[in-house]
What we know:
The chain has three helices and 20 strands. It is mostly beta strands. The termini are far apart.
Amino acid sequence: MTRIIVTATLILAAATALAQSAVQLERIDVNASRAHPEIIIAETRLQTGRTYTVDEIEQAIYRVRRLPFVAGATYVLEPGITPGAKVLRIDVFDELPFHVLVDAQGVAQTGGYLAYVGEFGVRFFPTRTGVLDLMDGGAGFSAGGGGGSHFGDLSVQYTTYGLFGTSVYAGIGVTRHSTSGDRLVSPLLLLGIPLTQTQTVRATYARSGDKSNNSSLATAEWLIDRSDDPYFPHLGWSAAAGPQWERIGIITEFTGPRRPGVPPTIVINDDRIKGTGFAFDVQKYWPAREHGVWLARVNDTYFKETTVHNGVEGNSIHRHLGDALIGAAWNFDAGVTDETFHRGRVELGAGYHRDSSTQGAFTEDRSGAEVFIGGAYRNRLGVVRLRLSRVASKR
């Protein structure tokens, strides 16, 4: 009998705790100076009159923090008029109308091989729901006293959020690649359709060049994000995966051998690359006291590229590029207010870097053990992110 009473008591206590963790939303109030309240409410994907757990409400706030025109967001649950119901009050700290973005990465490998990529630009918030990015970037490498680089990849993109009164977002832009040798307009397209509070389907398309020298890349991605911050995650995890399609075309013309009394002939070479691939990225964060973070990251991009010369297919090239890393980070947080805020992060770790390509019997492999150090700084004027890694590659 005593055992039955104890069991019933435990069941009642568990049911009571579950009921206390569930919140019926009577109303959602948004306090923001520039961001449109309807967009913030749509982004939460919460509906008044329904019951949610505290975790679901926190995930909704995390979604709001990921909006590019939001510097930060907090919430409180206040008693409503209806008995047992709550009012969710969201305080949004808006970004300034002008924003600077800097992102640079470098990888050094055994044998003097160095690869780097960088991007610099400005971000404007011309409307309450729109983002305008003006970016300039490029990449380069050096190996064995040689190498190459190009910068001046200019792009302009406008992204709008809250389409059709939902949390759908879309972007359109133009870009010009510095090595294309022309000034033709090339499109950039983006579409994001949230499925749940934490899941989104996203598609992108980019093209550069002209009819004789062009490249295009299309991606489709399923994304789930349960991390608490887009720049300095302290807990949670995220995962993204999806296919990619690449097309490259180069058409060259030259005059054939000249023969006496025979008109010169024009020779046309049509070289194309058809690529299909798959990419995934998984990240996990564990809090270590107030500011510390343990982290783990695994990502890989696989591409199968097939060359086609004047309609004749050659051997396919199989490429892999990815990392498996563990590390630690420390967040410096001065708080978020309407006036200003300063946030920083330093992280370091180690793992394995994969960089290989295979074509028939030929294999090039620069994989090996990796160490990395990175940092980021964010305030109301912009974001700066830097990352350096060293790989003890096989060759």
